Amino acid sequence: MANLYPAISYTLGPSTFFACQPVTVSSSNHISITYAVISSSPELASLEDAGRTIWIWETDSSSKTKQKPKRTKTIVSLVPHRSFRIYGIFFMKFEKGQVVYALYSCYDLPERIMALSNMGSFSILDGESLEARTCYIPSLALKVLYSWTFPRSVDVSGGRQPGVFVVIISSNSSSSIHLCTMIIDESDSISQTQETDIDLPSEVNCLLLSLSSLQ
After folding, report:
1. Neighbours of 61 (CB within 10 A)
2. What does pTM read for this prediction?
3. What is the pLDDT of residues 116-144, one digit of tens each?
4. How far apart are CA 175 and CA 203, in angstroms?
5. Quick check: helix, strand or coil at residue 204?
């Protein structure tokens, strides 16, 4: 059981906090990689790096040393203010006030992780370099309330199709929510993107906003 479900722990400095739930991705040869977005730490180079800095730990359960030194990467490719492509790589700049809301991984998309900003921008990042392979910019910059990802193989229409479903609920209003859905395939293409506004009684939407603030 210890080999099937190894316990992994990491040493953190004082006053270190995560911006969202860390993600651990297991690869072949007993190697697992953990990604954590740091919202507060004395090790951050500046306050502007809070919520945009990812610490990466790589652990080899078959090795005596097991854990490699922590790597730090300040991502500049998650929340695009503008974007341009050079030799197939996206380069982007942050807008002020936007940080990482959630990290995701899926076995249908190996060797990459997915990152969602607090204003709804969604990026597929290379698992090693954290460069953006593909990025989606919503038509409206709204505060994210909830988000989910599902393997595309859960599609009941038949036939297993590698990829991921993404669902994002956001709002800046007390009377409506914004629903965004998309599909990401194994080539990192984002397709079948749909966005719609749903009117809600103000009491219901206020409750959603209150609950999201507790996360």
Report:
1. 15
2. 0.77
3. 989 888 888 888 888 888 888 887 778 89
4. 8
5. helix
